[in-house]
């Protein structure tokens, strides 16, 4: 075999191996695995959770509020990351004597022009069950610039809530209301910003309700985790 042919064969084998180890794993696959060894050589590209959500390297996840005084599934546990967008940097399978095998992921968050923090979701499934992860990351495409970011959560252009309220992308205006609570229960902002009118720019259907992304007049984005519940509690009001 000539040196050129040998080079081509080696190159093809390298490409094949690369494809083989860049894999999507699933909740059932991990749950039914006998040993962690079968995941050690994998270059995991994405994970399909038990609820069908897909988490991919390079996409974005929205972090929810602490389930207690501290995060139960996110380290560092003392940081307040509610509503933060984080890029998924790595997905890997972990193991403990008590829990067996479970899936973790390393995130990256920009905290200023020169500062990056790298929190870790220790257990994706538990984070989902207690609300410390609030987004389906494979359906989110994020584009960031100096002053604003835009998000497309799906191709839904119109959605009708169970109450009959109709929502339209880039047409519906939503007013964020003042409440008697110190913090909003279904909005990503920590402080009261009542009276602010924002534009609806993205909708993600989730069961009988929907998650919304609102663009504030200053370009800031606010996530409404459950539109119907936020409407029922008076946290938001559909202007038009």
Output the keywords.
18 strands, 6-stranded antiparallel sheet, 5 helices, about 240 residues, 5-stranded antiparallel sheet, about 35% strand, alpha+beta
Summarize the structure.
The protein has helices spanning 3-21, 27-31, 37-40, 124-129, 227-232, and strands at 22-26, 43-48, 54-56, 60-62, 74-75, 85-96, 100-110, 116-117, 120-121, 141-144, 149-152, 158-160, 166-168, 173-176, 196-206, 209-215, 221-224, 236-238. It is an alpha+beta fold and 240 residues long.
Give the SSE layout.
Elements: H1 3-21, E1 22-26, H2 27-31, H3 37-40, E2 43-48, E3 54-56, E4 60-62, E5 74-75, E6 85-96, E7 100-110, E8 116-117, E9 120-121, H4 124-129, E10 141-144, E11 149-152, E12 158-160, E13 166-168, E14 173-176, E15 196-206, E16 209-215, E17 221-224, H5 227-232, E18 236-238
Characterization of the model:
The chain is α+β, with helices and mostly antiparallel strands. The protein has five helices and 18 strands. It has helices at residues 3-21, 27-31, 37-40, 124-129, 227-232; strands spanning 22-26, 43-48, 54-56, 60-62, 74-75, 85-96, 100-110, 116-117, 120-121, 141-144, 149-152, 158-160, 166-168, 173-176, 196-206, 209-215, 221-224, 236-238. Strands 4, 5, 6, 7, 8 and 9 form a six-stranded antiparallel sheet that branches. Strand 12 (158-160) and strand 13 (166-168) form a beta hairpin. It is elongated, with a radius of gyration of 21 Å.
């Amino acid at each position: 075999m000539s040196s050129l042919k040998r080079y081509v064969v080696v190159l093809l084998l390298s490409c094949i191996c690369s494809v083989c180890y860049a894999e999507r794993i699933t909740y059932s696959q991990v749950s039914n695995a006998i040993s962690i060894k079968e995941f050690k050589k994998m270059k995991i590209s994405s994970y399909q959770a038990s609820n069908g959500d897909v988490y991919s390297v390079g996409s974005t996840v929205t972090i929810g509020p602490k389930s207690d005084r501290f995060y139960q599934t996110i380290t560092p546990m003392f940081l307040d990351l509610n509503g933060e967008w984080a890029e998924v940097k790595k997905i890997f399978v972990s193991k403990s004597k008590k829990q067996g095998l479970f899936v973790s992921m390393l995130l990256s968050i920009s905290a200023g022009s020169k500062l990056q923090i790298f929190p870790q979701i220790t257990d994706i499934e538990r984070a989902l069950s207690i609300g410390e992860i609030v987004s389906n990351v494979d359906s989110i495409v994020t584009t960031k610039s100096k002053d604003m970011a835009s998000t497309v959560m799906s191709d839904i252009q119109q959605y009708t809530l169970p109450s009959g309220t109709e929502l339209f992308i880039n047409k519906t205006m939503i007013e964020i209301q003042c409440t008697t609570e110190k913090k909003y229960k279904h909005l990503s902002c920590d402080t009261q910003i009542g009276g602010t009118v924002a534009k609806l720019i993205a909708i993600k259907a989730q069961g009988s309700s929907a998650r919304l992304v609102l663009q504030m007049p200053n370009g800031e984005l606010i996530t409404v985790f459950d539109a119907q519940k936020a409407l029922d509690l008076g946290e938001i009001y559909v202007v038009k």
